[in-house]
Design a protein that fits this description.
Blueprint: H1 2-23, H2 48-53, E1 60-62, H3 68-77, E2 80-82, H4 89-92, H5 102-113, E3 117-119, H6 135-138, H7 143-160
Parallel strand pairs: 1-2, 2-3
Length: about 160
C-alpha cells in the first residue's frame, strides 16, 4: 500500500511540475541545471512515461483514441497502454470455449509495435460495476466449477498475452 501511495504521489508531483513548466514556454525542467545530454532536460523533449520510468513508475493511457495521430502522440508520451475492454470476458469468450481474440490482438500488436508495456485492466468484474461477465458465467452455481473457469480464463489470457501486467 505504501508503494502504491508513493507511486501516486510521484505521479502527481510529476504532473504538477510539468504543468508548472508548461506555463512558461521553453523553461528548462530544472532551473539553472547544467547542460547535459539528457533528452529530458527540456520537458517537451520526452514524455511522462520516460520521466516516470526513471523512478520505477509506469505511466500510460487507455487504448481507444479514434485517430492515428492521437494514438501516435500518446505512444510517444507514455510507456504503458491499457488494453481497454478488449480483454473483457464477454468479448474474449462470449460463449463457453468460444474465443474472440481479434480486438485484443489488435491492441496488443499496437502496443508491441510502439514499445509499450501492456496493462490488462481487470481480470474479472462484477455485473454491477461493469457489464463484463458473459451470461454463461452468471449461470454457474458450483463453486469448484467457477474456480476452474477462472483458472482457465487466466491460462488463456496469460498464455496468449505473456507480457500482460
Amino acid at each position: 500500500m505504501r508503494r502504491l501511495l508513493a507511486g501516486c504521489a510521484l505521479a502527481a508531483t510529476l504532473i504538477v511540475a510539468l504543468l508548472d513548466l508548461a506555463v512558461v514556454p521553453g523553461r528548462a525542467a530544472v532551473d539553472a541545471a547544467p547542460v547535459t545530454a539528457d533528452p529530458c532536460a527540456v520537458v517537451d523533449s520526452c514524455g511522462l512515461g520516460e520521466l516516470a520510468a526513471r523512478s520505477g513508475v509506469r505511466f500510460g493511457f487507455l487504448y481507444g483514441p479514434s485517430s492515428d495521430a492521437a494514438r501516435q502522440e500518446l505512444s510517444l508520451r507514455h510507456s504503458t497502454m491499457a488494453l481497454n475492454h478488449a480483454l473483457s470476458w464477454n468479448v474474449i469468450e462470449p460463449s463457453r470455449g468460444t474465443y474472440v481474440f481479434a480486438p485484443a490482438d489488435a491492441h496488443a500488436a499496437y502496443a508491441d509495435a510502439h514499445g509499450l508495456d501492456q496493462h490488462g485492466m481487470h481480470f474479472v468484474w462484477d455485473q454491477v460495476g461493469l457489464d463484463d461477465l458473459p451470461t454463461w458465467v452468471e449461470t454457474i452455481t458450483d463453486a469448484d466449477e467457477l474456480r476452474a473457469v477462472l483458472r482457465q480464463r487466466a491460462r488463456v489470457l496469460f498464455d496468449r498475452y505473456p507480457g500482460l501486467a
